[in-house]
Write a structure and sequence with these properties.
By secondary structure, the protein is mainly alpha-helical. About 80% of the residues lie in helices and about 0% in strands. The chain is flat, with a radius of gyration of 22 Å.
């Protein structure tokens, strides 16, 4: 958060509280401020930008963690599919999960490629 130099220490704590508590009211209780104070800060562009950056970093960290777990999850699904001791409905469900997620992944990749092509076209690149 490079722009945080002008945020107060309480505002920086508020950003953390907003990321770790389900509501503004709950974050306010932890900080010992009125919810209206947090709402006022949320109306400030610098605070909103710092919060958005912190949210992005949290999502990216969660994504990295999911990526590290993905191989184990796929191995477990594959094991469940192949294990004759696993009940048939569970094996079918494992196969369904794998195929559905593969199709969703493919859709996302296709969409990203199309979007990239459109952006290039709009910039006049070929």
């Amino acid at each position: 958060m490079t722009e945080n130099a002008t945020l107060t220490p309480r505002q920086l704590r508020a950003i953390h509280a907003l990321l770790t508590h389900p509501t503004v009211a709950a974050a306010a209780v932890v900080l010992g401020v009125a919810p209206s104070t947090i709402y006022r800060w949320l109306s400030e562009p610098l605070f909103r930008a710092a919060l958005a950056q912190a949210e992005g970093e949290a999502v990216a960290a969660a994504g990295r963690r999911l990526a590290t777990l993905a191989e184990n999850a796929l191995d477990e699904l594959a094991r469940a599919m192949r294990d004759p001791m696993t009940p048939a409905p569970t094996r079918v469900r494992a196969a369904e999960v794998i195929l559905n997620n593969l199709l969703r992944y493919r859709e996302i990749v296709t969409f990203e490629n199309r979007l990239t092509d459109l952006e290039r076209e709009m910039r006049g690149e070929q």
